[in-house]
Design goal:
The chain has 115 residues and is an all-beta fold. Helices cover 0% and strands 60% of the residues. The chain has no helices and eleven strands.
Length: 115
Amino acid sequence: QVQLVESGGGLVQSGGSLRLSCAASGIIFGVVATGWYRQAPGKQRELVASISRSGSTTYADSVKGRFSISRDSAKNTVYLQMNSLKPEDTAAYYCNLRQVSGTSWGQGTQVTVSS
């Protein structure tokens, strides 16, 4: 069983920055990719960024050039650096771990960007 714990969310003004962290613990093997998703009220959950086992990254068009995903394999932690934040980035952000054996989700961390 895998546990994912997100942290780093909060309230920030438009144009500001935040860094989210996702720490994984438990039985971690056969990782396919780790990603960050977000869900705003009344909207579907959407992929924000992901990083594969090989290190290749994918970003939603809306965050390209502003967000950056990275990982520290020694710490089993994935980060999402968010710069130039906009009010439309306001959402609950969830960490996702895809393994060969299945998919795990964190509990989410709220990001609120004020205008």
